[in-house]
Each structure stands twice: as C-alpha cells, then as structure tokens.
Amino acid sequence: MNLGSQETTIFAIWTGFQFLWLALRSVFYHFGQASDRIFHQPIRLRKDWKMVPTHFKLRIRRVIFALSKYQMHVHPRGQYCYEEDVQSCDTSYNMQARFILTPEDLHRGEVTLSVVSIVGDTLLSSATWLFGSKLSGMDLYDSCIVILELNSTTVAIPSARVLSGKSPGKLSSWPSDEETGMDPQFPPRGGSNTGRDITWWYWISCGEGKWLQTHTEDMRFLGKRTASIVSDEQVTKKLASGELLVGISEVGHVHEIVRNSSVGSEVLQNMLC
Ligand SMILES: *[C@@H]1O[C@H](CO)[C@@H](O)[C@H](O)[C@H]1NC(C)=O
Ligand SMILES: *[C@@H]1O[C@H](CO)[C@@H](O)[C@H](O)[C@H]1NC(C)=O
C-alpha cells in the first residue's frame, strides 16, 4: 500500500467526520425544536448545564473524551502527535489569559516553564461541537491550552501550537541547497507528515506584544522547558521565513489562534464545572 494515498484516505475520513458531526447536530436540533413545537413537551432539550444532574454531566463528559480520543486516532497529523495531550480531566482549570513576565524574566530573555499538561485541539473541538459552538475542528486546528505549574499553583493558559515538519536542529541550515524546491514552505492545514523530525512549536501570550516561544524535543513537552521571550515582530520573522514548514506566516495568525483557544477553553471549562 502506498503511504501517500493512505494519508489522503485518513484525511478524507477525518474531514468527513467533521462534516458528519455538523450534519448530525443540525438534524438533532432541527427535530429537537420541531418536536418541541408540535408536541409541547414539557421536557426541554436545551437545559442549563448547571441544572444537569451530576451523573448526566459525567456521561456527557465521557462522550466528549471519547470523541476527542477518536479524533486523535484518525487525525491527519497522526496519533503520535497527540501522545502527551490529556485524554480526560475531572476538574475545571484555573484559567489565566496570559503569562505574567517579571522584570527579571525580561532581563534574562527566557523563562523555565514547568509544563503539567496540554489540552489539545481534539478535546477543545469535541467540547465545542457538543455544546453547539460555531467553532469547528478546523477553527481550532492549532489551538491548545498549556497547563503550567507556577509558584506552586497550577494555571491554564489558552495558547497556540503548530506542528513543524522540521527538527529544531535543522532550522539553522535553512535554506539549504538540497532542500530547495523540495517542500512547500507554507503547506496548508490538514496535511499529514512523515512522522520524522516533527516538532510542536508553542506560543504562550504574555500580552503587550510579547510571547513565550518554545518547542518539543523528540515530541516531548511535559516537564521542564526553556521558553524564549520574543516579540510580535520576532514571531512574524520566524513564521515568514517559512523555515518551520507550517501554514501560518505572521503573528496575526497566532493571535487569532489564541483567541479561538480562549473561546474553546471557556466551553471546556463550563463543561468541567
Ligand atoms: C477562528 O474561528 C473563526 C470562527 O469563529 C474562524 O473563522 C477562523 O478561521 C478561526 N481562526 C483560525 C486561526 O483557525
Ligand atoms: C510567587 O510567590 C511569592 C511568595 O508567595 C510572591 O512574592 C511572588 O510575587 C509570586 N510570583 C508570582 C509571579 O506570582
């Protein structure tokens, strides 16, 4: 079997699944509302989440986690990209909009992070889908929440991450002659990868045009990570060079991803309460 065509099939299944979700949800709400009108049922289909009994909440959460797991399984990026993402969570997160830099951090130009866990796009999109949010799997493609241990408290920050098809060690040699014309510099979203040399690049907002920029080592991110403090301009410079081989090319895209991560995080957070 040809690997290229196999990856295309996986992408087709994954995309098809996104559309199937959308269709099923529309059908559900269509008939849900129609039967409400026709039969004047006292049972409301759209209940306030706070009024849902605990055991039902638990079941709905299990459905979301199962959907997330399923998406990881068929994701065009490959399941191996999702090994460190959380599969399920029981309590709501202590959300924080941004990482707060101290003057000492700024002076050093880098920060040592203690990464506790990562909520990836599959869990976010499963939650937004089930709760009827407009955000689709594609809108959350590069979204995530990074959960950090900070000053002995755990905080969760909506962030951005993209999967680069290049190992950080090979970036400095860019552009090299042997690679000229080999890869598109800005491959579109939804592509697959070879599984070799891949790296997640993360951007955590610090506000005021500053970011923490860091990446996985051998696809490992949990634990201690050094992140450099970079500016909007530096992020754009890195993306615009095309060296990461990702679909985005400027910091505006990173801002947008983080905004969508925040919307997704709110939905997920609500579901965990
Ligand atoms: C963010 O979500 C909106 C829909 O609300 C979508 O139009 C946009 O493309 C998304 N942004 C990214 C970077 O996916
Ligand atoms: C961490 O905790 C110490 C003592 O509790 C406090 O003085 C300091 O401001 C805290 N740092 C941050 C970044 O919150």
What does it look like?
- Residues 165-192 are annotated as: Disordered.
- Helix content is 40%, strand content 20%.
- The chain is an alpha+beta fold.
- It has one domain.
- A 6-stranded antiparallel barrel has the order 1-2-3-4-5-6.
- Strand 4 (199-207) and strand 5 form a beta hairpin.
- It starts with a helix and ends with a helix.
Task: Supply database-style keywords.
binds 2-acetamido-2-deoxy-beta-D-glucopyranose, 6-stranded antiparallel beta barrel, single chain, alpha+beta, 20% strand, 273 residues
Could you give the topology of this structure?
Blueprint: H1 3-39, H2 54-74, H3 103-108, E1 110-119, H4 121-130, E2 143-150, E3 153-164, H5 168-171, E4 199-207, E5 210-215, E6 223-231, H6 232-240, H7 251-272
Antiparallel strand pairs: 1-2, 1-6, 2-3, 3-4, 4-5, 5-6
Helix pairs in contact: 2-4, 4-7
Total number of helices: 7
Instruction: Report strand %.
Output: 15-25%
Rounded to an integer, what's the Rg over CA atoms? 20 Å
Order of helices and strands: HHHEHEEHEEEHH
Major pleated sheet = 6 strands, antiparallel, barrel
Q: What structural class do the secondary elements suggest?
A: alpha+beta
Number of strands: 6
Report how far apart the termini are.
Answer: 46 Å
Q: Which spans have pLDDT < 50 for at least 5 consecutive residues?
A: 35-44, 176-180
Shape assignment: globular
Distinct small-molecule ligands in the complex: 2-acetamido-2-deoxy-beta-D-glucopyranose
Lateral arrangement of strands in the main beta sheet = 1-2-3-4-5-6
Question: Any idea how many domains?
Answer: 1
Helix content: 25-40%
Mean pLDDT: 86
